Amino acid sequence: MPQPTSRDTRLFTVTSDTLVVVDFTPRARREPGPYRRLFALPGTRAFTAGNLIARLPMGMFGVSAIVMIAGTRGSYALAGAVTATGLAATAVVAPWTARLVDRYGQARVALPATLFAVLGSLALVLCVRRDAPDWALFASYAATATTPNTGGMSRARWAHLLKGRPAELHTANSFEQAADELCFMLGPVLAAVLCGTFFPEAGTLVGAALLLTGVALFTAQRSTEPPAVRRAAGRAPLRAPGIRPLLLICLATGAVFGSMEVVTIAFADGQGHRTAAGAVLALQAAGSCAAGLLYGAVRPAGPARSRLVWCLAAMAALMTLPLLAAGLTGSLLVLAGALLVAGMATAPTMVTTMTLVQQHTPEGRLNEGMTLAVTGLLGGIAGGSAAGGWVVEHVSATSGYVVPAAAALTAFLAAAALHPPGSPNPTK
Q: End-to-end distance of the chain based on CA atoms, in angstroms?
C-alpha cells in the first residue's frame, strides 16, 4: 500500500479486497476577478478613493450652474452659454496644466491649480448672489478652467503601474470610465437635490469643497505617482500620428453629453419636475457605468480602431431613443428609460477611445495626451451645451433631442471615414 507523505491529504483505507482512496484535497480557490487583482496592487485603493471624491463635482458643476443661473436670470440660453464658455476655456487651459503635471509632477501642480479653480467657483456664486452683470458670470466660470484633469491623472497612474500589461490596463481603463459615469450619475442628483432643497448656489459650493478635498487626498498618495519627465523625448501629443482624428471624434462625442444635459433639464422643467432632472440624467450614466464594468471584465476581440467604429455605431443608434421617447410620449418616465438604454454605448466608446489615445501618445506625455482627449470632449460639451440651449430657447425642449442624436451620428461618420472596420491597424 502506498505510504502518505507529510503533504498528502488523501486517506487510504483497506477493505477485504479493495483499496479505497478518499481525497480531502481542498478545491482550488477560484481565481480572483480582474477588478480584485487590480486593486490588490499597493496604493491603488488610496489614490482611487481620493480621485473619486475629486471627480464627483465634475458631474455637479454643470447642472448646478445651469439651475443657479436659469433660476435667477430666467434664461436657459444664458445658462448654456456661460457653461459653454467655461468648458471652452478649460479646453484651452487644460492641456497646458497637463503639460505642467507631466513635467513637474501631479502633487506640485494639481493642488495649486485646484485652489485657483475653486476661487472661480466662489466668484460665480458671489456674482449670482449680487446680481452682477452677465459678463461677470462668463468671466467667473472661465476662471474654473484650471481644474486639473483628475481622471487623466488617475489613468496615468494606472498606465505607470501596469506598463507592459495590456489586459490589466484595459480593465483599469474600463474601471476609470465606469468611475466617470458613476460620478456623473451621482453628481447631477446631488446637485439637483442641493439646489432644490437649500438654495440655488448650494450645489456649486459643495462641489468646490469636494473638489479641493479630493485633490488634496489624491496628491498626498506619492507612492503611486508617475515620475515627472522634465524633458520628454517624444513629440507633442497633438502632433503625434493618430491623435487628431481621435480629437475630432471626441469633439462630436462631447456634443452628445453637453446637449443632453441642457435639453433634459429643460424638458424636466417644462414638465414641472426640475428637481427630477438630475435623477433622469443619472439613469443615462447608470447604463453607461454598468456597460463599462462589463466591458472591462471581458477581453474584447479585434483592434481598438475597429471596435471604436462599432461602439460609435451603437451610440448613434441608441441616441435616437430619447428623441423618440420625448417626441412620441412626452413622458419624463419614458424618457428616463430611454436614457438608461442609450447610455449603455457610452462607456465602451470612451474606454476604446482612451485606449487608442494611450497607444498613440508619446512616452512621458501621457497625462497631456489624455487631457487633449478630454479637451476635445469639453469642447464638444461646450458646443453641444450652447446648441442645445439655443434649440430649447427658440424651438422646444423636445426638439432639443435632435442635437445629441445628430452629434452621435457625426461621431460615427467621422470614425467610419477615418477608420473603416477591417482597415489595418497602424503601428504605434
A: 62
Cα separation, 76 vs 166, whole angstroms: 44
CA-to-CA distance for 197 and 39, rounded, in angstroms? 37
Q: What is the domain class of 34-228+238-418 according to CATH? A: mainly alpha
Contact 391, 263 (CB under 8 A): yes
Model pTM?
0.70
Reported as a single tens digit per residue, the pLDDT across 37-55 is 888 888 889 999 999 999 9
Pull the grid cell for residue 244.
Answer: 487628431
Length of the chain: 428
Quick one: pLDDT band at residue 322, thresholds 50, 70, 90? Answer: very high
Strand partners, 11: 22
348 closest CA partner among 296, 408, 404: 296
Decide: 147 and 116 in contact? Cβ < 8 Å: no
- CA–CA dist 189, 392 (Å, integer): 22
The residue extents of the domains of the chain are 34-228+238-418
| Nine cell digits for residue 250 | 471626441
Q: Is the dihedral of CA 68, 71, 73, 74 positive or negative?
A: positive
10 Å CB burial of residue 180 (0-12, 13-18, 19+) is buried
Q: Please, are residues 60 and 203 in contact by the beta-carbon 8 Å criterion?
A: yes
Closest C-alpha among 276, 66, 51, 18 to residue 157: 51
Instruction: State CA 67 to chain mean position distance.
Output: 22
Alpha carbon 183 to chain centroid distance? 8
What nine digits make up the cell of 378? 469639453
Cell of 308: 471604436
Kindly give, in sequence order, each residue whose CB lies less than 8 Å from that of residue 84, ignoring residues fewer than 6 positions away.
Answer: 258, 381, 382, 383, 385, 386, 389
